[in-house]
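fwd from M.: "can u put these together and see what the complex looks like"

so here's what she sent:
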Amino acid sequence: MPPASLGHGVGLRREHFERVLSAPTRVDWFEVISENFMADGGRPVDVLEQVRARYPIVLHGVSLSIGSTDPLNRPYLDRLAALARRTEPAWVSDHLCWAGIGGHYAHDLLPLPYTEEALRHVVERVQQVQEHLRRPIALENVSSYVTFRQSSLTEWEFLAQIATRSGCGILLDVNNIYVSSRNHGFDPRAYVDGIPKDSVWQFHLAGHSDKGKYLLDTHDHPVPDPVWDLYARAVERFGKVSALVEWDDRIPDFERLEEETQRARVIEARVLGQAAAAGAAGEAASGARPPAAP
Amino acid sequence: MTARLALQGTESLFWDLITAPEGVRPGLETLVRDGKAAPSAIDALIAGDERLPAAERLDIYANMYFFRLLDCLREDFPRLASALGEDRFHNLATDYLMAHPSENPSLRYLGRRLPEFLAGHSLARESSCLADLALLEWTRADLFDAADARPLGRDDLGRLSQEQAGDLTLRAVPAFLLLRLDHDAPRLWRDLRDREASAGVPEAGSGSGAETVAGADSAAATWGAGAANAAHLGEQSGGRCEAGHLHEARPAPPLPRQRRRPTAVRVWRRGFTVFHRAVEDEEAALLDLVVEGTTLSRVAQRLSAGRSQARATEAVGRLLQVWLDAGILEDLR
């Protein structure tokens, strides 16, 4: 079963450290980039301790490189495990991608071919990571700009199979689905509908840039309407799931981020309210129904 | 070929193409020349379309790769970037990343070998002080998130008897490093900061205006959230330049010139702010002892050489005051 919803959060960025620590906020939780806090001391460690004392947090990594054919980086996993022990996050997540090869890192989220071979490879490594961390992890779908000719599965089939076979959760990035759908020409609703209902632990919401020939996942804009629409559909399918707004460049005031989380909160309430109303109406209707004939 | 090797081959080709400094298509030509790929490798790997051919799709990753790392280096070496100008810094970053691709899952360590690399680079033949400037900046970035320690304060020392004080172990906090440079890099650092300020360039990092304080957040920037997404890299990738060398189409600032002047610099973090200061030879020698761990008596003994008792006592008091106020000494009690 997916963990209970933490509500509506934002990614913790250094531009907001002082604001977050100096006064109450209207967000329920924070997601932090794991690598940013694998430090021995200094401000990052201090800030994280203070934020953790006040809010639930989730560790979100960018360098697990779960799809790489390099061996898993054990020192990195040790540091991640230590950080998780120290901060007791609600969960730990990273990306369904690879980040480098040959001992080198691109510091980017590189796409995988959606093949049975890659599937087996990733599942095996997810299980190793989960054993190392002694907890299940969640993996996020990334934005992509290429389609490998050798892919034999759709992205959502691949992601669903990873979750089903490894037992990991899914961090469903709604913006990434939308960006990739435009870049590759698939129906984003089919993606959402193709993910198993009980596998999604968290949503990501963000903005992107239209580069003319393609959309680029830039996290430097408000969440656009098509992504909100897709979020509504995701809430309809997956129910009340922790949702997080990411804004990583041209970062606005914290209050602007809070507005985005408020919008997500309203959409979630509307969709769930409609679902509840529909359920209640259904019950009322069935209650009013004449008894079945014996 | 096993499944694992098939995936490995895919990742290997993808990597070679997106990290080729000259760009994806010329990168393929190099691979073909070296017998590592077929001329049709890109189209065999990636499905392109009329709107966005396969090579252009790979270009998106290639530009993100380079510009993300370039941005990271610029964040850690803001004064070096300023001294070189945009195009020279771009070219230096290209050369550096070819020689030293990132080997750590954290971007924080990307620039670790840049000072050493720069010392052997052609730029250093034109301006030998650049490598020292880079080392000063890297040390500042490196100490930003070094281990915490409680610093010894004046009050702590005041509570000790004279005998206890004499036996007190003096050791530097973990976030401390003594550099021995061939040039007066602190002066160059300050001059560049002043030049940026007069040109209206926003202060890098923390924005502090104190003389030896700036860029305290510079290391933080390197592990900033941008690693999770393309961020502004996309803006750059659509711009004038590609990864690889630029040919100085725009005017570059004159390279800094400094005569060789051996300079000891202490760099340390107090609270969350990183400081640096050039020190005299005598203080540097004593700081060598402090880094190893010494006693106040030993420091006093060293300072008494060639001084009257009164002057030696005065010198010890003055130096200790400076170190205590700076937060350089760790409270080991």
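replying to her w this: The radius of gyration of chain A is 20 Å.
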